[in-house]
């Protein structure tokens, strides 16, 4: 669910009308002459910059959304969205409203969703988390195992990282984002979960590679690499520091890397915690990287307006506790 396709329940709790262009049949709830039922539509228009797409995101007809835009233009005495060449762009006033309108809706949603306490044994709350396959394997598997017994009614949706993750967190459509340093939003709280390093993984019977790889030896190998929604941090760092390497196979799931190394002379580079598991389950072995590689630091982030939400506090403390209990990195 994206940042624009949810109508806040405090604003619209009635059946949408396709015609005439009003969001609902209730008497308008006004504040300083503005119908507050129009705020979700305003956010959709500011995000989409397009009447048709904004209407689709709220399941409102194009003519209805055009009427809503006309009412908003009248209230603000500003066109809000204007054509620039073949594109539609926001006016300066509309640009200034983007963050404030979003914050307002998230604050109200968070306020109405808050409860004086969170009882995990009886709660039926739903949480959404963005995390990579790697994080799910090394951390969230244990978190979910504990939730199964401690909070049997709680449900969790795990999403893959995407270009929309930051916008979804900002819009309150996401409870938690687990990600490396540098990929989180600056204006929201976060907590370090754990660190990791990197090791190469080769087939157990690979005779061409010893216990360690120098940078020259590493560059001479054929590699199985991971890529999804752009280059991962290791790939970006390596390209900037050492240039390109020979990527013979590229996949979109971390878990496939050791499978595609076994019984070949190729090399895969994995987070050390994942490499340890791979060696236990596949016919592969770990190889030390005999050159400097930055440590991997994973953080947990949540929206600032949910900082004091009892349910959010409970789950993030559970995630942090499981991270603290992770085994120490092996000295290989």
From TrEMBL:
**Which Pfam families does its entry note?**
HTH_1 (PF00126), LysR_substrate (PF03466)
GO molecular function per UniProt? DNA binding; DNA-binding transcription factor activity
**Family membership:** Belongs to the LysR transcriptional regulatory family.
What is the protein's name according to its record? LysR family transcriptional regulator
Q: Which InterPro entries match?
A: LysR-type_TF, LysR_HTH_N, LysR_subst-bd, WH-like_DNA-bd_sf, WH_DNA-bd_sf
Q: Which domain of life is it from?
A: Bacteria
Keywords attached to this Swiss-Prot or TrEMBL record, sorted alphabetically, are: DNA-binding, Transcription, Transcription regulation
Positions of the HTH lysR-type domain: 34-91
């Amino acid at each position: 669910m994206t940042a624009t396709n949810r109508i806040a329940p405090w604003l619209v709790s009635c059946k949408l009308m396709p015609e005439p262009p009003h969001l609902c049949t209730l008497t308008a709830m006004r504040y300083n002459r503005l119908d507050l039922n129009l705020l979700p539509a305003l956010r959709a228009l500011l995000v989409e910059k397009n009447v048709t797409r904004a209407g689709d995101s709220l399941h409102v007809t194009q003519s209805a959304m055009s009427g809503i835009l006309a009412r908003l233009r009248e209230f603000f005495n500003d066109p809000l969205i204007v054509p620039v060449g073949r594109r539609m762009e926001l006016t300066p006033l509309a640009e200034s409203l983007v963050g404030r309108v979003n914050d307002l809706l998230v604050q109200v949603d968070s306020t109405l969703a808050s409860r004086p306490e969170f009882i995990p044994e009886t709660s039926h709350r739903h949480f959404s988390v963005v995390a990579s396959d790697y994080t799910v394997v090394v951390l969230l598997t244990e978190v979910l195992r504990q939730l199964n017994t401690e909070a049997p009614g709680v449900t969790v949706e795990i999403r893959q990282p995407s270009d929309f993750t930051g916008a979804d967190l900002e819009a309150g459509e996401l409870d938690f984002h687990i990600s490396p340093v540098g990929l989180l939003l600056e204006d929201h709280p976060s907590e370090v979960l754990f660190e990791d390093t990197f090791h190469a993984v080769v087939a157990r019977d690979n005779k061409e590679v010893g216990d360690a790889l120098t940078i020259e030896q590493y560059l001479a190998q054929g590699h199985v690499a991971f890529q999804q929604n752009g280059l991962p941090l290791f790939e970006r760092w390596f390209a900037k520091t050492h240039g390109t390497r020979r990527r013979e196979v590229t996949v979109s799931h971390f878990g496939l890397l050791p499978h595609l190394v076994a019984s070949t002379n190729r090399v895969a580079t994995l987070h050390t915690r994942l490499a340890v598991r791979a060696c236990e389950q596949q016919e592969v072995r770990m190889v030390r990287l005999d050159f400097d590689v930055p440590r991997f630091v994973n953080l947990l982030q949540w929206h600032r307006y949910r900082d004091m939400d009892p349910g959010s506090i409970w789950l993030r403390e559970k995630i942090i506790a499981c991270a603290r209990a992770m085994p120490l990195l092996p000295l290989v």
